[in-house]
Amino acid sequence: MALISFGSYPEVSLQQARKLRDEARELIKQGIDPQEYKAELEQRKQEEITSTFKKVATDWFKVKNSKGLTEITLKGIWNSLELHIFPYIGNSSIFKLKAKDFIKVMEPLRASGKLETIKRLCQRINEIMFYAVNIGLIEANPAVKIKDAFESLTKGQMPKN
User: Is the pLDDT of residue 96 over 90?
Assistant: First the structure.
């Protein structure tokens, strides 16, 4: 069994050290190495800081770029995100985003009747969030059903972009 240091006195009180020791013992009982556990927590904390929606979208876009889409299509995808999404939630942690955050961002588009733009943004947001799931950043896509919060175009209705 390896020795674990919790810090030096007086930075860590005896009471705090005992609490940390008890937590470490509990992890060991569960078959978890306390030092590895602490390192994983630190890594996760760092990921939460650096994994903004815009950063993950940028990584997703690099993959999307390799799919053989035309330059005009790619530019349209990125411009729609820069115009409608990034100014509002681009700097938000991917871990903290909820469906209501995406819906709130698109409310002004609904008010102006831009249902086709909403439809496309919902598709792009879902692709980005599923990318985050697939690379192991998040467990589930919170945006999976956001399109259901908006009306859809009726047959024969001209889209407003």
Answer: yes
Q: Tokens 């956001």 — which residue?
A: 146
CA atoms within 13 A on the CB side of 142: 14
Neighbours of 51 (CB within 10 A): 20
E strand spans, 21-156: none
Mean pLDDT of 98-109: 96
Where are the domains positioned within the chain? Answer: 14-49, 51-149
d(CA 92, CA 73): 26
How crowded is the C-beta side of 136, counted as CA atoms within 13 Å? 2
Percent of the chain residues past pLDDT 90, beyond the cut? 59
Residue for token digits 């399109």? 147
Q: Cα–Cα distances in Å, from 72 out to 58, 76, 79, 90, 120?
A: 17, 6, 10, 23, 15
Burial (CB < 10 A; 0-12, 13-18, 19+), residue 22, is exposed
- Structure token pair of residue 6: 């919790």
Domain 51-149 has CATH 1.20.1250.20: no
